[in-house]
Target: Nephrocystin 3-like N-terminal domain-containing protein
Amino acid sequence: MAYSGSGRMAITPQSATLIALHGLSGDAFKTWTDKDNHLWLRDSLPEHIPNARIMTFGYDSALKNSTSRMTVLDFAQDLLIRLTIERQDPLEWERPIIFLCHSLGGIVAKQALIMSHIQDETYGTIVKSTTGMAFFGTPHRGSKTASTGRMLSRIVNAASLSRATIRSDLLKTLEISSQSLDHISRLSSQILSGMSIISFYEQKPLSSTGSLIVEQFSAILGFPNERAIPINSDHRGISRCSPRHPNLYLPVWSSLKEMVEKSLLESRGEYDEFMDKLFCVDYKTAQLRPRQPHHGTCDWIFHNPTFRDWLDSPQSAALLLSAPPGFGKTVLTRHVMEKVLAGEQMYSDGTCINLGVSFFCSYNDQISTSEQTVLRSLLHQLLQLHPRAQHVVCNGLLERKMLGLAYDFTPEKLWVAIRDVLSMDGMANTFICIDAIEELNTEDCHRIVAGFNDIVNNMNKTSKRTHRIRVFFSSRPSAQYRVNHPSMHILSVNRQHTEMDIRNYLRDSITEFCQTNAPFAEAMANRSPTSIIEKMTKRSDGMFLWATVAWENFCQHIFWNEDVLEERLLDLESTPPGINPLYNKLLDRIDPTYRKELWAFFAMIAVAKRPLSEAELSELLPVMVSQRDELTNPCQMRPFPKLLDIIEKHCRDFITVHDDGKILFCHLSFKEYLLQTWATDRPEILEKAKVSISKACLAYIKYWDSLTIQDGSWTSRIQLLDYAVSQYLSHLASLPSDHPLWITYAETADSGYFARDNTSPLHPLFTETFSRWISEKLMSIEKCHEVVRAVVSHGYDLNGKDKNTRGSILNFCCGGDGEGFKLTVPLLLDLGADPNLYPPGKDSNLKAALYKNHQDTAKVLLRHPKFDPNQTDRNGQSALHHLIGFSSDEAIFTLLENRVVEVNIQDRVGSTPLHLAVDRQRSEVVRRLLLAPHIRLDIIDKHGRTPLALATWWGLKQIALIIIERSEAFPIPENSHVSPLLSAAKHGEEEIVRVLLPKTRYKHIGRDLDESGKGFLHYATMNNWHDTIETCLMLSDINTDQIDHSGGTALHYGAKLGCTESCRALLKYEASTRLQDRNGRNAAQMAAEAGFKDTLELIVREGNVDANQRDHQGRNLVHWAATLDCLDVMQLICQQPGVDVARRDNSGKMPIAYAWSCQCPKVGRYLSLRMKYLATLSVPWKDPYNWDRVFEIATTQYMKAQLAAEEMRKASERAAQEETKKAAKLEERPRWEEAPDQYSDEQRRELSQAVPERMKLPWR
Model:
């Protein structure tokens, strides 16, 4: 371990530890140092990440002249030992570790983490402290260059006479498909899944080799928690972040800084589970599957005016790249995306774009690709770019379901989340790329384009107009885009755009072919390459794919001379333009001897639901070419060996092996050609492929089920098993409903695969299968029922043997959408399905049917002899609960008449059916339940409410009267229960109160309080029921001075609301006028504050009022009465002995000051007159207020308010008139554009100004 050449460092309060590991033939310092001797780990990184402890680890990884025999395992052990020494202080154990790994260094770091995990007692703190990994060109899956290098090392070692040789063992470790790399990757995958990972991959070939050292497929792990960032440098330069190229290495600085900040958060890892659930498809692999552009091509787009206008727009904008098939739009899209991520594309002001997310529809599983898939993948990438937004999005998508919290990934929620993330300040310069949106279904395509256009337009209208979001779509041409989205930039690719790229490609290809093929070079000696280039360019008609395929076909020749060259050129001239005729010609050239097998091969790849590996195809092809009608044991079909050699020899014009080992067509257009052309010309080939792959899937499922050992290891031992289990149903869907394989599918039930419990990791629920049959209309209802009968006849138990899956099929059909499910429920019941069984965590069968308003299905269940109406579901609800919630009165009455029903069952919240009927305001049902035998009215729910209390709680007057009328005995509530009387008074239902009071016999009326501490007397006073108050006070022992939580009595609230008669009744029974609430105010002060003169006068006349009693602000009754210009009331107050009219409150104000503030001249003059004769004043009183000006001031203020209101009205009218004029001009637009000659120049200019700039059409 070293840092700037020093030894052990003093431990300081640093934020994180960064450890740099060099690669093959690297050096602890030189690997990270550019040609200007700038060691960025020491000279630049501390500026971006202050207080970080940065170390570099060196090991002997030299290839040449090295006598070392240390392996990757030894390097990792040495790293752990040295790192443990550096971390001896306990303070170091809490400091997060981040590894920066170049090339082989990433393999060493992964091996070290594996060993740290295994040897937990010795090195466990290292793996626990590691929070992030940054890989710079690490060959996780090996390097093609290493394979070539190993071969050369053998030659050199064999010829060398010295002991120093080339390390072929290290090169072997880095080979493609290396067992060592595969072992390390598998063991480290679980460890790395909980960390932040950034993978930088090179984009420039090394000058000495002319090729990429580590290809993109190997440099990217493909984990959900990984960010893949291209760097426009070669394998050496990728680790040398020079300050001379700030934009080139900006992604490195920003992502490392972000990784360190995330590692220091206390909640790190809190949202990892959410990110894992959000991840749904491997979008990273799909991004790498398109070809990289040929050198010197595709750069024209960065100089295109439409592209530059879109990119340099000062606000957010969307661009659609529209190109016909074969024009290379996907390759162009990948090129644009990688240039943006590498920081090479900048706005006109020099701002760099380095935040980018993408989704390539063409290279993802077509079955799973949908609007939801695209949005989830884009949102996952956005949250990786901006981790601080994870908690906001997580909380927004988290919803409370019946079984607890769950994430809602519906498109509506995802759109809101994406909009919220893009609105954040850190995402102002985000680039969003969606390729081949036409591959989605039409509705999803239009929703995605419209959704992002709405986001862009809304941002430009709101405070986020400074954001510069860039949305890039690519699609085949469609006139709908321009019509539906007039504000979107559209770049239509034509032959003028691609012809220069085609010429460059052909020129380089001819030059390269001349260098590698001497006979061809000699044949070209007297011929200019321009003739070939121009012929191919002209016939391609701008289609880059045609030129590529034509050139590759042109080169397929062994012997070359001038005559052969001339023949090839003549043959080229006879090839018609267009990709389909070219494919026809290439297929016709296939040797008839091999044509049948190769066409079967093509058909199998075309109908497969995802790309297949060599092992999977080698197991499928024997089924395709076999003559057997039945396939009982697929392992008896021997796989075809060396399939890749066959591809190289016979199919290299059509098929390629991708870097991830998947076998694909060289061009997606060839798959489209096969599916479209062969569907009419050779339908039997495609049909056989569909049947063969469906047959194989079913055979593998049945065979796996028959094995005695069934565990996850079989998925690797039987290569096609995983594909069969995940895709069998989609293949069956492509077959007609009367195909015999459907019955074969039903026969699998006797082996127990679909009858087995849910313990198998490969077991798909039978309900999902049935759902696809019905919802996707894979077959008719009659045929579907035939399959179901066959399944049952072969041993499938509809009720399920396991508690986790019992009754799942019937339950699913009860709640399924569509007529087919309704018709299937009687069939399942006839076949023995138990109507009372349903899976744990699901709604009961009856509730599932009623929730979807399947009333006929509910009647079928209720009439079934085995149906138990008193069975409760997970919420404790019985059939009666469900019917009250969702069904008609007739159905409820029928159940009560025909079955023995327990009417007092309580659900999880304590509600009986009567409670639920009250809550749903079903008066007829309430009447019928009250007639049921043994009905109880004293049962309370978890909130302490009887059915009557519930009715009064919600103010349901009619329901409450029905219950009171039908019940003979009224249950008096306990202390903790809700009082119907109090609830009725709270809702102002005097009629209910008058009926209930005699039933209580006026006992315990004051005992019941609500949550605010108010009792019946409070609410009776607030409702001004003075007769009721007098009756209660006369017949009961209720306390007239009962206070609530705010200290208020009934008299307080009567005074505050001006309930004069209620206050009179309270005062008659000696209610106290001197009690103060929490603000220190008595009832008289409350009346004065509220401005009720009559109530205040009543309290002062009839109550024992202390006019000098002060509230918490120091004000007495004279202060409060001074705010009312009622002279008679003030005189009445001042007649009381000892009244102090000159008392100052806590703010030093006397009552006369409040009279002036409230513009009360009568009271003010009266107080001024009394104060002149007060002996208590130290200085004779002199009135400072001019009471004659009070009316003048009030009049002036009123006039000002009236003038302001009039100005606002006029401004509003002017704005409305302007909007009306603009709308009229916009309506006029079609006429002046269609017939401009009918309008004058002045009229056209005026109308043109009313039309947004992007909506204007050119004059013709």
